[in-house]
Amino acid sequence: MTTTSITLAETPLLALVLRRADDALILGHRLSEWCGHGPMLEEDIALANIALDCVGQARSLYDYAATLDGRGLTEDDLAYRRDVGQYRNCLLVEQPNGDFAATIVRQVLASAFLDPYWRAMTASADPTLAAIAAKAEKETAYHLRHSAEWLIRLGDGTPESHERTQAALDDLWPYSGELMESDDAEAELVRAGIAVDPAAIRPAFDATVAMVLREATLTAPAAPWRQGGGRVGRHSEHLGFILADLQYLQRAHPGATW
Amino acid sequence: MTTVQTIPLWEVFIRSRNGLAHKHVGSLHAADATMALQAARDVYTRRGEGLSVWVVPSNAITASDPADKDVLFEPTASKIYRHPTFYEVPDEVGHM
């Protein structure tokens, strides 16, 4: 039986690039699902803008990953032809949009990490990653500002908006720790000055989240447990549905263009 | 969409480049000034239009009554000497 699926020989650098690329693509895809369904026209466009920033970051990163892979694959091959188990995104970004509050909580948690992460990555010894970071950090700064302003208004809004936002925070909080996880391969890149240790972003993440939650009158859950596994391809059931949506056309009609 | 009706309306002005005035580009709904600025950025500067954005609460604008159109504006129609069409403006003057 023939298959169009691909797997990559993941060197430490390629693995790092795929993690960042998959985070960006899946988060961007989730946000794009709001297109035409936003709570108001202004926010519909705002979410689509953020989605496009994420997909743009994913494209640059996939393009670099394809170069590192060296087999002549393209960014599209990496997005459309890897199965669930090959995806390296964290579980947070694949969580469903839920109500608007869940989307905003997910975005604040992701951006509170991604924004300082990309700012730190502008000093990467890898010139391609440094260039991608320089573009991304301006975008993530806005994503954080926009989602944090919404979180404050939802949390400190009506009793219903407060309740829904707190519920979303309780649901998504256990997924936030995975953002700051890394492994031995990534530690090697950190020593070489190519990567930033995600754990080193923790203080900035904690400070941002604490400040926003305080203003939003929300309470960070105690979180006795932490969810992870995305970085090694152990995903929640949601990613399969996302990829079914995302990859259907290229899987049914390999190489189709228009 | 009933909730949207309780969200205030804002008028958006964008300056496209240095030296030119802010121009009215449209309106939008937002809960407050901060969110209005962000929405203006997202809705009206998607194609690199702006260097600066103003938002003004729509209800802060006092408008002339369309019914007064003739009283207010008709009398100027006969005063063609107010138009600077009798002068040649040198190219160097630029925006005037």
From TrEMBL, chain A:
Gene Ontology terms: biological process: phenylacetate catabolic process
PANTHER family referenced in this protein's UniProt entry, alphabetically: 1,2-PHENYLACETYL-COA EPOXIDASE, SUBUNIT C, PHENYLACETIC ACID DEGRADATION PROTEIN PAA
Cellular component GO terms held in the UniProt record: cytosol
Protein name per Swiss-Prot or TrEMBL: Phenylacetate-CoA oxygenase subunit PaaI
InterPro entries: Aromatic_CoA_ox/epox, Ferritin-like, Ferritin-like_SF, PaaA_PaaC, PaaC
Gene label: paaI
Biological source species: Methylobacterium oryzihabitans
Automatic annotation (TrEMBL), chain B:
Annotated InterPro entries: PaaB (IPR009359), PaaB_sf (IPR038693)
Domain of life, per lineage: Bacteria
Pfam family, one: PaaB
Name assigned to this protein: 1,2-phenylacetyl-CoA epoxidase subunit B
Species of the source: Methylobacterium oryzihabitans
Lineage of origin: Bacteria, Pseudomonadati, Pseudomonadota, Alphaproteobacteria, Hyphomicrobiales
